[in-house]
Model the fold of this input.
Amino acid sequence: MSEQEKTTQNKTGEMNIRYPDDDHEKPQRSGTKEDEMKIITSSGHRHHNHRSKKGKHHVKKKLKKSLLIVGIVLLSLVLIALSTIAVMYHTGKNELNSDKVRINTPASVDSVEDGQYVYYKGDKYRYKSDVINMLFLGIDENNYIMPKGDIGSNGSADMIALAAIDKKDSKVTIINIPRDIMTDVKAFSLSGGYSGMEKMQIGLSYAYGNGADTSCVNTMSAVRSLFYNVPVNSYFSLQMEGVSDLNDSIGGVDVVSPSTIGPFVKGEKYHLDGSDALLFVHKRDMQRSDASLKRNDRQKVYLKSFISKFIKKTKKDIGVPISVYNATKPYSCTNLNASRIIYLATEYILNRNMKIKMESVPVTVSVNENRNAENYVKEEEFYEMFLSVFYEKVSK
Done:
């Protein structure tokens, strides 16, 4: 060593060499692993190496950030879905409710404001503007009155029912309309041209159309005219052969037969599956002039039982309407869209305990010279029933 070098010896016996030009000590390896993991800072303090802990902290930070991003995306999707449902809900509500309504009245009844108020037998009534009306049709395509494919050849509506859905009173009134009621029907020529109004059985109104939407619209028009121009904007028609699939889509229906026909005995209870459901609502005794009315009685019993079970199952499983829709799709025609279905399901199935009431248009029965049944409405009884469903009594 040179003379300028100064040599010291530490307690361990190792030689430490100080260089005159150095301001600090040169770090020396200590020979232990612990000392190898230490460094000397510019201030002279010793610190442990935290590289492994910092790495774990960085991974956790990235994971939290990723989870936050996923959460934000999921929340955004939920908000978009809820917004879409809300828009569809209000769209359905607007489509099903009519803003401008003009209700007709019998000649003996006074009315004001386009039928919004009527005076009947000393009492004043107000029209229920929030009642939603839907038409349900059961179609028999085997009842042809002309060659298949022509106007007038597309079968007839063997079952006609108007559902009046009253939100305020939480009530659904199903009004059965006998198919042989004589009323004014829009008739069309073989070429499809409008030929004027003709008096005929209301069930034949379906024949004057294409066997689908235009047929439904023509029957809906006839029903609206019969019911004093009350608004009817929605329809659902089902070919009779689809009743079995409709019935089985909710696991069958329990009924008590109101009359004896075929295998069904008056007063007996039955669980209907498959073809038995079709037989129950479709069969009639052609030897009787009131055969259609007897069949209407069974159809009312079936409809009430079906709707009650449908509502009960839908409250437990919101997917039930989809199952019913898929089961009936090959046999049905409707102008109900997703918006209307969402509104109806939300307001009248999921959120309410709707009561179901069954009514029938009161009629007298006769037979024409061709031995075809003709039903004529009992006007006074019918109008009083009409008032009870679509109007409410108010103070004078």
